[in-house]
Amino acid sequence: MSALFLGDALYLGSVIGAVIISIGFYAVIWGKAKEEAMEEDSLVRSLLIPSSNDQFPLSQNTKL
């Protein structure tokens, strides 16, 4: 941005750094979206498919 607006010199290191930062930011945002999708999917599955612990409480399985 400074090269365009202020007329500063553009160095290769600056360009490489900007690309690395952009890729890193994209990876973090992509990973966060993927994590939220997995959490939502597991929540839906837990509501639709009851676990075996929900069907048979521990108190009914023990002998007195």
Protein model, in words:
The structure is a single chain. By secondary structure, this protein is mainly alpha-helical. It has a domain at 11-48. It has 4 helices and no strands. The protein has helices at 2-5, 12-48, 52-55, 58-61. The longest helix is centred in the middle third of the chain and has 37 residues, at 12-48. The chain is rod-shaped, with a radius of gyration of 26 Å. It starts with a helix and ends with a helix. One of its GO terms (cellular component) is membrane.
Task: Identify the notable features of this structure and list them briefly.
64 residues; mainly alpha; 4 helices; rod-shaped
Compact summary:
With 64 residues, the protein is mostly helical. The protein is 77% helix and 0% strand. GO terms for molecular function: transmembrane transporter activity.
Write the layout of secondary structure elements.
Blueprint: H1 2-5, H2 12-48, H3 52-55, H4 58-61
Keywords: Membrane, Transmembrane, Transmembrane helix
InterPro entries: WAT1-related
Transmembrane segments: 12-30
